[in-house]
Amino acid sequence: MATVDKTDNNTSMSSLHRRFASLALSCVHREYPNKIAHVLTSDADIHAPRDLTPAFYGCFDWHSAVHGHWLLARLARIDKNLTNECCQALKQSLTKEKLESELKYINNAQRQAFERPYGLAWLLQLAMELDEWSQEEKDNSNEIHQWRENIRPLEILIVDRLSSWLPKLSFPVRSGEHSQTAFALGLSLDYARHVKNLKFAQIIEEQSLRFFSSDKLYPFNYEPSGEDFLSAGLAEADLMRRVMQKNNQEFIHWFNEFLPVNNLSSSLEPPSIADPTDPKLIHLAGLCLSRAWMLEGIIEALPFNSEQRNQLDQLSKRNAQAGLIAINESHYEGGHWLGTFAIYLITRRGINSKI
């Protein structure tokens, strides 16, 4: 299992791109094993995953299939050595007919909470990636533009669904898994700002402030739970640096009360993973990777050469290294999803708006 320092040369980065692209290519159309979150209303609802959600049926579950396609779109866009292979997989999935079936499946009274909010936020990230790619690509632009248009109806449904749900959510969900509120809002806010959906962005910003603006002295010593792949505390801070980006001093003041410089918890050090073949315990590898990119985002908003910035930078690097080391292609338990987290980290997606 290769490791990398994020300052390595372009050849090393390209090899990482290929490695993680291979993980997604091997699973986006692999139907089994499969864990479906499917509500049955009658015998007529019993179908194979490829029939229920024909675009996003691989990678063990729907959300992993979605962000596996995001990984392929991102690498096809930024690494020309991978464009052809990744585009072939995207071409198979992102047809108008298959995405219309996805829309029909999700737009059902029994599925109002389907993949909310984690999977829905990743779908918006996929739409954002396709949108940026279609605007800049000269070669194969018609095909990429068509994929972008094919996903738009599903994207509109998801924006409407999240916009309706958020004001009714009485309290944020502070888990370290799929139900977490802050992580999904961060991904969704990046999307909303990119597509200039000011109404959706305003809803996210207002609800984020309602949920988190008064938080102080976050108890990081309560983290992580044994099956976390997200930090509730860092995801909250990474969201708030986005929400407060127009007034960076406001964020610095908020963050200094949220995590004072003398209050850095040893629990944020990379955890050990006892069994990488266990589908839940391997979550901790994802925790390391997501912590690393969240810390990078937070660092971007902190004063240069401050003690706090330097401490968090070293913590980010240690978590990144531990997470990358833990990815093992021979174990499908982590291989079907960890590549996405690695690519989100090493391409600095949560920080870079255009690359």
UniProtKB/TrEMBL annotation:
InterPro entries found in the cross-reference section: DUF2891 (IPR021365)
Superkingdom assignment: Eukaryota
Name of the protein in its database record: DUF2891 domain-containing protein
